[in-house]
Design a protein that fits this description.
Chain B: This is MaoC family dehydratase N-terminal domain-containing protein. The complex is a heterodimer. Chain A is of the alpha+beta class. In chain A, about 25% of the residues lie in helices and about 30% in strands. Chain B has two domains: about 5-20 and about 55-145, Thiol Ester Dehydrase, Chain A, CATH 3.10.129.10; about 20-55, no CATH class. The relative contact order of chain B is 0.22. Classes of the chains: A alpha+beta, B alpha+beta.
């Protein structure tokens, strides 16, 4: 497997720009992910909890962040992946995933991750540690 | 109703044995817009040196939901599922897993913390994922239960 070269603090991963998250996206993700919590797919349940609408699964955005990282390095090089879910992702939001190297220690790099919506809201922050060779 | 932290952490959650299925991994790839064919096409996965479709990085969370009542561990503590937010999630990886693998997941509640005078309760669960004697990954989940009656 080839080594990543020229990785240094400040190196940015190619951003992953997603399509808007539709209700269909949420229905498919509920089935595929096994997370059937109705708060994400059933408007009646969302309203019964005092919400105006359903909202996206946090793990959908984390899956997008994982795609950002595996687009950059083969998955077997990922040592860890961590996220904090800092804001809800509404239906029809359009996420963009970004990553920037914040530390290089020997053969490992630490990448700071974020998911941001088109209105500037940051929904996820996180960190991945990847092996460079 | 406040969560009884001692009871929560003493709770024995039974281990879960899951067979990783190709079809589910391909569906997960479709649902997450994953266009790298190694995650949905066995021939592409093999051409890239994998024995089968890889379990993608966040799918270990999904494996734990492969049971009839996947949220029983939290609803049994008296938490209303509608009030839950996912606060944090992390994974530490030790080896790749693939379609066809039989994995064993062992969850345990490791922390319950009350915040804002009981309006928020943070429940932390750690799960180890093994294949035979091999440690594949560890997952850590923080769920936030919102007690709306408390201010």
């Amino acid at each position: 497997m080839t080594a990543l070269t020229n990785v240094e603090v400040g190196t940015e991963l190619p951003p992953l720009v997603l399509e808007p998250i539709t209700r269909t996206t949420l229905a498919l993700f509920a089935g595929a992910s096994g997370d059937h919590n109705p708060i994400h797919i059933d408007l009646d349940v969302a309203r019964s909890a005092g919400l105006d609408d359903v909202f996206a699964h946090g793990m959908l955005s984390m899956a997008y962040l994982a795609r950002l990282v595996t687009n950059w390095v083969p998955q077997e090089r990922i040592r860890s992946l961590k996220t904090r879910f800092v804001a809800i992702t509404p239906v029809n939001a359009k996420p963009t995933c970004t990553g920037k190297v914040v530390a290089v220690d020997g053969d490992e790099a630490t990448v700071e991750l974020a998911v941001t919506l088109q209105d500037g809201t940051t929904t996820l922050t996180g960190e991945a540690v990847v092996a460079l060779v | 109703m406040p969560i009884d932290a001692a009871q929560a952490m003493a709770q024995e959650i039974p281990p879960l044995t899951v067979a990783v299925e190709r079809g589910r991994l391909a569906f997960f790839a479709k649902a997450t817009g994953q266009d790298d064919p190694i995650y949905s096409d066995v021939a592409a996965a093999k051409a890239a040196g994998h024995p089968d479709l890889p379990v993608p990085p966040t799918f270990f969370f999904s494996l734990e939901l492969e049971q009839s009542d996947p949220f029983a561990w939290i609803t049994s503590l008296g938490v209303d599922l509608r009030t839950i937010l996912h606060g944090e999630q992390s994974f530490t990886y030790h080896a790749m897993a693939y379609a066809g693998d039989e994995l064993v997941l062992q969850p345990r509640i490791v922390d319950v913390t009350s915040k804002k005078g009981g309006a928020l309760e943070l429940v932390t669960k750690k799960t180890t994922i093994t294949r035979g004697d091999d440690l594949i990954a560890e997952a850590r989940t923080v769920l936030i239960a919102q007690n709306k009656g408390v201010s």
